[in-house]
């Protein structure tokens, strides 16, 4: 006979226990949900709350003259493919070029093609399009084309060089289509950088001349030229463009100027640089002398602005060897320019300039019966030890030559001597 009281008691205890258990589960779940959601909101606030970066930073790299002489044409031609290849020239500097956020080079030759004109060197330069491929391979972003050789093969020089470089997805300043801008504005890590390039020349009665050759009416406005007969005229030519690109954070000007093979900037360079500094230009990069001239900084007349001036970065790639020209034409310089923009006051400035000397290594390869050209950065002893066919005495001398031209300061430095 069953005891109904016991059964009822057991049922009650079971139901009560289940109720307590269910309430506990819900309470535990509720507590945990509160804890989780509270934590997530806190995390979401830290992850998704928009914050404005206080300082943006970017780095620019600039190098000197890139030229191709007949000996280089022979050395870079591949008989098996019937094509030119310049990649090996840049193998050792490639990492420096690629590491910068934006890299620039002066192209002191034309890419006119070989359908109308043959490839040639001094005094009328015309190089294979593959040179542009080599510069692209090295990591360059921008090509400056305003120089005294820009019109060496006439109208086609400007037209074809511009078309080739743009086809390779390279930015171009110095030459342009007739309706194009004389400058470029690049947004590098949210810093707006205005860049232009000008070459010395003559402007007479609205006619323009490069190397005393009159540029056709069709193309005379396609090359950025400053009148080298007068400081004021030269400044006004350039300042016309500076005013156009005034709404930028930083202004960079490439200038083809100075005296060939002179280690010292001339009075014209000094005075023009000062006027550009007074106008607010932040960086001036010089080319044309084919040797390294001083790298320094100058102050505006009112003392409120400072401009970095590299009067000449020397040769980057060429056949201007010591035995043919002088003891300084194998020397070049890469300058790495660190810039910043404070987003609180919108002020942008050059933070630091690091100078990296280069030396052009040329040697004969008996297996290929060709000369080899390599641009060597004089920055790291362990890297130099891995490179064959180097003359230690020449590279030590090259570093010394260039170091003497760098006016070091809190702003400007040169990589440590790898030979010490």
UniProtKB/TrEMBL annotation:
Domain Capsule synthesis protein CapA: 59-320
SUPFAM superfamilies reported for this sequence: Metallo-dependent phosphatases
Xref: InterPro entries: Capsule_synth_CapA (IPR019079), CW_Biosynth-Accessory (IPR052169), Metallo-depent_PP-like (IPR029052)
Keyword Cell division assigned: no
Classification lineage: Bacteria, Bacillati, Bacillota, Clostridia, Peptostreptococcales
Alphabetically ordered keywords of this record: Membrane, Transmembrane, Transmembrane helix
Coiled coil: none
A Pfam family the protein falls into: PGA_cap
Name of this chain's protein: CapA family protein
């Amino acid at each position: 006979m069953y005891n109904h009281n016991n059964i009822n008691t057991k049922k009650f205890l079971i139901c009560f226990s289940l109720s307590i258990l269910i309430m506990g589960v819900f309470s535990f779940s509720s507590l945990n949900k509160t804890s989780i959601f509270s934590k997530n909101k806190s995390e979401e606030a830290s992850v998704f709350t928009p914050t404005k970066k206080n300082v943006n930073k970017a780095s620019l790299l600039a190098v000197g003259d890139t030229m191709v002489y007949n000996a280089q044409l022979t050395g870079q031609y591949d008989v098996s493919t019937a094509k030119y290849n310049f990649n090996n020239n840049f193998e050792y500097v490639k990492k420096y070029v690629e590491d910068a956020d934006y890299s620039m080079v002066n192209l002191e030759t034309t890419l006119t093609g070989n359908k109308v004109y043959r490839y040639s060197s001094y005094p009328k330069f015309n190089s294979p399009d593959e040179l542009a491929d080599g510069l692209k391979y090295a990591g360059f972003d921008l090509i400056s084309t305003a120089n005294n050789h820009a019109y060496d093969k006439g109208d086609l020089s400007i037209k074809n060089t511009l078309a080739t470089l743009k086809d390779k997805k390279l930015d171009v300043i110095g030459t342009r289509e007739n309706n194009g801008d004389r400058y470029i504005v690049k947004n590098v890590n949210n810093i707006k950088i205005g860049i232009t390039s000008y070459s010395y020349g003559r402007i007479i009665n609205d006619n323009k001349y490069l190397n005393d050759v009159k540029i056709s009416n069709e193309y005379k406005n396609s090359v950025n030229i400053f009148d080298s007969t007068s400081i004021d005229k030269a400044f006004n030519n350039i300042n016309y463009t500076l005013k156009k690109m005034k709404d930028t954070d930083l202004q960079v000007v490439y200038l083809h100027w100075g005296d060939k093979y002179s280690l010292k900037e001339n009075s014209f360079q000094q005075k023009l640089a000062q006027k550009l500094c007074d106008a607010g230009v932040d960086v001036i990069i010089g080319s044309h002398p084919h040797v390294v001239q001083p790298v320094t900084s100058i102050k505006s007349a009112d003392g409120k602005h400072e401009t970095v001036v590299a009067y000449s970065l020397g040769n980057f790639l060429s056949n201007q060897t010591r035995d043919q020209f002088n003891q300084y034409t194998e020397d070049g310089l890469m300058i790495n320019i660190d810039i910043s923009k404070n987003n609180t006051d919108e002020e942008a400035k050059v933070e630091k300039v690091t100078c990296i000397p280069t030396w052009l290594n040329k040697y004969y390869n008996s297996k290929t019966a060709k000369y080899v050209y390599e641009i060597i950065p004089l920055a790291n002893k362990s890297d130099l030890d891995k490179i064959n066919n180097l003359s230690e005495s020449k590279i030590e001398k090259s570093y010394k030559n260039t170091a003497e031209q760098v006016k070091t300061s809190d702003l400007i430095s040169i990589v440590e001597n790898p030979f010490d």
